[in-house]
Design brief:
Elements lengths: L7 H5 L27 H7 L10 H22 L5 H12 L5 H26 L4 H21 L8 H18 L17 H18 L4 H13 L3 H25 L5 H24 L2 H24 L1
Helix pairs in contact: 3-4, 3-11, 3-12, 4-5, 4-12, 5-10, 5-11, 6-8, 6-10, 7-12, 8-9, 8-10, 9-10
Protein name: Probable membrane transporter protein
Membrane topology: Multi-pass membrane protein
Keywords: Cell membrane, Membrane, Transmembrane, Transmembrane helix, Transport
């Protein structure tokens, strides 16, 4: 073999080397390779959404204790006059300001459902349910709640916080100014023959509200029953508990089916809410509504201040 046909490396001697560069397969583009942060819902599932954007462990632990206390007080209030969502929902929004709204609502509805099951069990034993009114309300309300839950992901979240703040202020003002409403039964404004139609219409309206929003639903439904059917507040609350918890369960299943829930937070707060539910039912049996009222108003004022500051700051 002559030099003209030998490999060039052999002609150059042992110092020459052959380097072969093989083509590398292209890596698939990912958010991290493109310099994009993971979606918020992935951060929520991975636990990367810190309380108030503060990663300090002591702060997070303190916030967990606060959420547990809020859930307990919400359970006490939810077992009686309602209002668990009024304190729990803004507390969750304050604690997880970067979490998507459907996750917050799904978490809140799971917490509400855990204590609500205990409330419904008790009120079914002690309250006279007006089935001619409630059955059509349940049919239309459950369907409307699922529809309302399905709309949350399609709506602009910017409207939610100001609307919730307005609702908080209005409910606080209403509770402070109406102390004697529904103490006794009165003549119904809606006659018996019109009750099924009124139940269907009211059920669709309140079911849509419960699916999309939720806070103070028991209070709203109870007030409607007092006004429309002349119920005493105690019986109105029992009927409202059954309706609202059924609508909440339907909306909750929608959120859970789409993976929109912070389960660790929901289970912690749910356990505290169930404990509060037992206490609230005992207080309701003893007629100690004054203490419940004070606790509820106190937490409501704190959350209005925190929530208003987070919006205006």
């Amino acid at each position: 073999m002559t030099d003209t046909v030998r490999p060039r490396a052999a002609r150059l001697g042992s110092k020459a080397s052959i380097s072969v560069v093989l083509p590398q397969p292209e890596k698939p583009a990912t958010p991290s390779t493109l310099g994009i942060s993971p979606p918020l819902w992935r951060q929520a599932r991975a636990g990367h959404l810190y309380f108030g954007h503060c990663p300090h462990p002591f702060y997070r632990m303190t916030e967990y204790f606060y959420l547990a206390a809020v859930a307990f007080i919400g359970g006490v209030a939810g077992a009686t006059v309602g209002g668990a969502g009024l304190v729990q929902l803004p507390a969750l929004l304050n604690a997880f300001p970067g979490s998507p709204l459907p996750f917050i609502l799904g978490t809140n509805k799971l917490i509400f459902a855990l204590s609500g099951a205990n409330n419904v069990r008790r009120y079914l034993q002690t309250t006279r349910i007006e089935w001619p009114l409630l059955l059509p309300a349940l049919v239309f309300g459950v369907a409307a709640a699922v529809f309302g839950a399905s709309l949350i992901g399609k709506l602009d979240e910017a409207w939610f916080k100001p609307v919730l703040l307005v609702v908080l202020v209005l409910i606080a003002g209403y509770i402070l100014t109406h102390k004697q409403l529904g103490e006794t039964e009165s003549a119904p404004a809606v006659p018996d023959r019109a009750a099924p139609v009124a139940g269907a219409a009211g059920g669709a309206l309140f079911g849509l509200y419960q699916g999309m929003f939720g806070p103070a639903a028991i209070s709203f439904v109870s007030l409607a029953l007092v006004r429309a059917r002349g119920m005493a507040f105690a019986r109105a609350v029992g009927n409202a508990q059954l309706f609202v918890n059924a609508c909440n369960a339907a909306a909750m299943l929608w959120f859970l089916a789409h993976g929109q829930c912070l389960y660790e937070v929901a289970l912690l707060m749910g356990a505290c809410s169930v404990a509060g539910s037992f206490v609230g039912l005992k207080l309701a049996e003893k007629g100690d509504s004054h203490l419940i009222r004070l606790l509820f108003i106190g937490v409501l004022v704190v959350e209005i201040a925190r929530y208003g500051w987070s919006i205006l700051a």
